[in-house]
Amino acid sequence: MTRDEERELLANIRVTAEALPAEYSLGADAKEGLCLFGPATDGDGHETYVRFEAGCPFLQQQAFLHLPRNLRFLLGLLDRASASVRTLRQRLERYEPPPTPEPKKKDYAAEVTMKCQTGAFRRFLIECHGLPDTADLERTLTRIRTLLRIESRSELNTDPDAQARWKSLKQEFERWMKR
Prior knowledge:
The protein is mainly α. Helix content is 58%, strand content 10%. It has two domains: 3-94, no CATH class; 108-178, no CATH class.
């Protein structure tokens, strides 16, 4: 069934529901047997709407008896659900997910400073890269800037070539440590 067909069917169901009486009454008629009664179309008294054959199951009788109330309930439920869906759609259209945080960038400048404070790395620089044996932290950092061809350690956080040279020096240090 297409959406247009569904809309048309729902509109017809609504018209039918409005045409039904508020309630049926179940009763027996001497001529017709068990019947559902509703208000007369002329507004005066009651008239028979449905006549049940002998042996009609009780649940079917109850289904007809409560049809107006149940149909109105279901249509109301559908209306409330549709309104909730519309409200949620509007909220969803206005919703902006929080921005995805950028991945934390590695602070190579801080890494260099920490590495230069370790005895093993300083020994590596002394043996492999001509750092004087009496060098303090400033001289060690100056030697690193020279080796990496940078003016400032902050360049390590912005210059991919400087980062590559630092990574290469670290790999060389790791190989030196394994000897």
